Records
---
Amino acid sequence: MSLAEVREFIELLAKENPNAQSELIYTTPYTLLVAVVLSAQATDASVNKATEKLFEIASTPQAMVALGEDGVAQYINSIGLWRAKSRNVVALSAQLIELYKGEVPGKREALEALPGVGRKTANVVLNIAFNQSTMAVDTHIFRLGNRTGLAIGKDVLAVEKALVRRIPKDLLRDSHHWLILHGRYICKARKPECWRCPAPKICHYPDKILTP
DNA sequence: AACTCGGGGCA
DNA sequence: TGCCCAGAGTT
């Protein structure tokens, strides 16, 4: 996929998902960070439902620590991995208070040192909350990148670097939403619905299915 | 590299 | 009813 095609591809996906919001609904760096920690191996709808109630009670690290692990668990036990996530969210909040005066740090090393925060989560926060040129690569984006030819790489880091290098800066911040929605609902792992894809001519996937 | 956490969504 | 998931940590 040429660089001109990369831009066209991204713009077509953007047009396809005009209402993409996803992480943007979380208005502070802290609620964004917690929401993304909770989102691991879970669906966005279940996380949004849980965080809506949770953030009513605790939208700051101080309130989260006061709520405690058992309190947090009450709000998030409808999503998977809730024990570990409750533990991580409270521990992470305590560290924010102790090390960063309750603020979310804008540096990768600091973010990834927090419990429950890995490279993908750090990249979402850096991109959305701190407007840095990063890309959060999950399973959907990894598959879509390699399949379509948008970003070829043998591991997540390689795909991330390719995306940051190739996606135009003005599109980088929002492209995460468009890519992940496209990967989730159209460019699916099994039975991709290529006939719904707005960019079959640009895609390099050799096994395209152009009719239902 | 393999294993674990985990309730819910979906075929 | 079984398989898989908007990852991260441990072994």
---
Amino acid sequence: MSSSVPCTIYRLLSTEYDLTSSEDEFLHFENPYQILIATILSAQTTDRTVNLVTKDLFARYPDPVSLSTARQQDVEKIIHRTGFYRAKSRNIIAAAQVLVNLYGGEVPDEINKLIELPGVGRKTANIVVHHAFDRADGIAVDTHVGRLSGRLGLSDESNPDRIEQDLLKLFPKKIWGDINGLFILHGRKVCRARKPSCSCCVLSSLCRYAALNTLQ
DNA sequence: AACTCGGGGCA
DNA sequence: TGCCCAGAGTT
């Protein structure tokens, strides 16, 4: 593959999508604590659903100290609508306890430390670094990112960690966060798992899968 | 690698 | 009604 292909992909997707508007949901959170908790709650749920509960949640538990001593039953009532509420309640309380006990009530800004928090995996850690610290130390490989990477021929791997390694080599670090957001938007709206809209896709001219898919 | 946790939104 | 949502933890 030509080394300019990743650059072209980035340019085309940037023209197609406005990342700043799609990230508005997160902008109203005031600090890394709120972003961390909201991101844990956002697993397998839309940002809009999370936003239905965060006002109540942060009014009652404005900081790690207050959340660390919360009763799980009370937290469950507030976040019930975000799904997986038992595990999420347990995890955010335990995470708050770790913040208080190990990090002086602050949210660490390193992937390796964030990943140790209950309820935080590699994807969530990447999201928190990106949104809370305005930086991208990696790329969160969800189903969309994995699917696009395969169809575009950017990676032949199946393991998300290895796909991430391939992507990190292909794209310059300063656009990792943008690539992450753009791939997810494109994977959701155009390059869908089921019926991808290759005829409307700005990347179709450089995509093997589109060439295959549009053959009749 | 497979399985479980789960309510909300949308076509 | 079926499918999807910037997943994580356990077995």
